[in-house]
Amino acid sequence: MPSHAKGTPLPMKELLLRLDFPGMPLLIGSLVCFFLALEWAGVTKSWASAGVTGPLVGWAVLTIVFVLVEWKQGERALVVPRILKRRDTAVLSAYIFRSERPLQRIFNNTKH
Predict the structure, then answer these.
(1) DSSP 34-79
(2) Which residues make beta-bridge pairs with 41?
(3) Which phi and psi (to 5°) does residue 18 adopt?
(4) Single pTM value for the model
(5) What residue ranges do the domains of the chain occupy?
(6) What span, in angstroms and rounded, lies between the C-alpha atoms of 73 and 23?
(7) CA quadruple 62, 67, 68, 74: dihedral, nearest 10
(8) pLDDT, the chain, mean
(9) How far is Cα 90 from Cα 69, in angstroms, rounded to an integer?
(10) What's the pLDDT tens digit per position in 30-50?
(11) Are 46 and 52 in contact (CB under 8 A)?
């Protein structure tokens, strides 16, 4: 590795601060709630049951708290705001989101 590419070693305190301990559990918890609700909904439980609406409400609350925590942390956040503010990042994210929809239709219409 070239000498100019090597970073300076960080103290342990700085390294731990960069791990975003408040953001990681909130993101993981919200995604677990969301995927559990989608897994159970319509298959093992009805959409109106408390076993589905509870995780959906938990997902919404945890996602809102995650966004607030990330906004408050600024540059130390798991999702850095300066990256999301770039126009090319926003356009590419929208393009990827949009381009996946036809693939979902193809895979959902195939018979197994």
Answers:
(1) HHHHHHHBTTTB-TTSHHHHHHHHHHHHHHHHHHHHHHHHGGGSSS
(2) 45
(3) -80, -10
(4) 0.70
(5) 20-109
(6) 9
(7) 140
(8) 85
(9) 21
(10) 999 999 999 998 888 888 899
(11) yes
Q: How deeply is 69 buried, as exposed, middle or buried, from its count of CB atoms within 10 A (0-12, 13-18, 19+)?
A: middle
Q: Under a CB-based contact definition with an 8 Å cutoff, are residues 52 and 19 in contact?
A: no
52 with 37: CB under 8 angstroms? yes
CA distance 73 to 67: 10
For the chain, helix (H) and strand (E) counts, in that order, are 5, 0
Residue type, position 89, single letter: T
List the structure tokens of 7.
């970073």
Between 64 and 110, whose confidence is greater? 64
Which residue in this structure is represented by tokens 């969301």?
A: 34
Write down the residue that tokens 């126009």 correspond to.
87
pLDDT of residue 15 exceeding 90, the answer is no
